[in-house]
Amino acid sequence: MPTPSRTSLDAIVAAGRAVLAREGISGLTMRRVGEAVGVRAPSLYKHVPSRSALIRLVAQDLVADIARQLDDAANAGDPRQALRAVAFTLRAFALSDPHGFDLLFTHLPADAAPDTSTFASAVGPVLRVATDLAGPDHALDAARTLTAWASGFLRMELSGDFQLGGDVPGAFEFGLQTLIAGLECRQT
Fold it and tell me: For the domain that residue 126 is a member of, what is the CATH number?
């Protein structure tokens, strides 16, 4: 009779998320995750065939998590409030899980990257809000602009690159207000 498994795929993914949060993608190894779930790295291969597959599973879980959060935020009613909620949800996620946020915007090799359909679920709420603000003719451009601004701003904030002092959360608010005003103008 085969020995029962001492871990599960869900436990491995949860441990992978925890390792990623502590150590970043370079620390996300079979050995580290094995230690976290209480098995030797070779035992993980019963569930996950490679480190690339592990990264893919963790990234997919991460994207699904932020997609749920963004979807909840995008249902804030008024499009301006929905965009604010989406932006602040993304900022809260970035500040609470900087390595996870970084993974969202890291180009991964094909064997480690989540399915494009996984990303579609995270982009959907942003695209909906962008459509409501800028109109259907400008929705994709607006969603890309919002994503580029938010990811750039948050990466700079996380890395401490705003070195001129001032109120960084206030600057985030200023940028968001400016984007909302600009996108609303595109509606006409």
Answer: 1.10.357.10
- The encoded tokens of residue 140 equal 């994709």
* Distance of alpha carbon 26 from alpha carbon 61, whole angstroms: 18
Structure tokens at 73: 């935020």
Domain that holds residue 145: 63-186
For residues 89 and 70, the answer to whether their CB atoms sit within 8 Å is: yes
Spatial distance between the Cα atoms of 184 and 60, rounded to a whole number of angstroms: 33
C-beta separation of 86 from 129 below 8 A: yes
Amino acid at 165: G
Whether 90 and 147 have beta carbons less than 8 Å apart is answered as no
d(CA 154, CA 148): 10
pTM over 0.85: yes
Q: Is the pLDDT of residue 85 over 80?
A: yes
Q: Are residues 117 and 33 in the same domain?
A: no
Measured CA to CA, the distance from residue 3 to residue 109 in angstroms comes to 34
Rounded Cα gap, residues 148 and 94, in angstroms: 14
Residues 143-163: what's their mean pLDDT?
Answer: 93
Neighbours of 161 (CB within 10 A): 8
The 3-state DSSP class for residue 48 equals coil
